[in-house]
Amino acid sequence: MNAPTVTEGMVTMPKDEFEELLERVAERGARHALADVGLDGEDAASDIRELRGLLEAFNTAKHTAWQTVVKVITTGFLLALVAGAVIKLKVFGGGQ
Question: How far apart are CA 2 and CA 12, in angstroms?
Answer without folding.
Answer: 10
